[in-house]
Amino acid sequence: MKALSARPKDRYAGVIELQTELEQFVRGGGWLETRTYRRGEQIISEGDEAHEAFIVVSGSCEAYTMVGKRKRSLKRMGPGEVFGETVFLTGQSRQASVVARDRVTLKVITRESLELELARNGWMKSFITVLAERFIEVSRQLSDLSEQGGTPTAPGKGERDG
To answer: 63 by DSSP, 3-state: which?
Structure first.
């Protein structure tokens, strides 16, 4: 435990640092591993096996896919945003790559850390399970539609009033 470390240099620099870490722990996720990446550093790569999801703490990163030899940007992400979460829902390999746009700090979520967090809030596990099942079903439907050459429409679009 950092606060009780035998070496003073390993302890909290001050009360504010201790308070901040305690607040993060109480809100959840304060105990998650933290990783920092430099600008341009690859965080995840499309096609890789996936075992972790990430929460952006600070900085920014960009998700992209390769279309032939061209990089196709999908989304830029900043503090509070999550990526890589579909691994927990689908079990598939990475569907996109993510690179740091500047210095970025991330919280790492493993399947084990997610299960521990959900065990602390019993109702949330049921809630998340239902959302995951719905996500998987919608993904299957979109995949089937895509294979048939169709295009999805938003609810209410493409329908004519009587």
So the answer is: strand
CATH number of the structural domain spanning residue 47:
2.60.120.10
Residue 136 CA to residue 92 CA, distance in Å, equals 11
**CB-based contact 43:54 (threshold 8 Å):** yes
Q: Taking Cα atoms as reference points, which of 70, 75, 45 lies closest to residue 60?
A: 75
Are the beta carbons of 4 and 79 closer than 8 angstroms? no
- Number of structural domains (the chain) is 1
Question: Model confidence over 11-69: pLDDT tens digits?
Answer: 767 767 766 665 555 455 667 899 999 999 999 999 998 889 999 999 999 999 999 99
Quick: pLDDT tens for 75-102.
999 999 999 987 776 777 888 999 999 9
Look up the domain containing 57 and give its range.
Answer: 32-110
Neighbours of 12 (CB within 10 A): 15
pTM for the structure as a whole: 0.63
| φ, ψ for residue 16, nearest 5 deg | -60, -45
CA–CA gap between residue 18 and residue 68 (Å, rounded)? 49
131 lies in some domain: no
Q: Give a yes or no: residue 27 inside a domain.
A: no
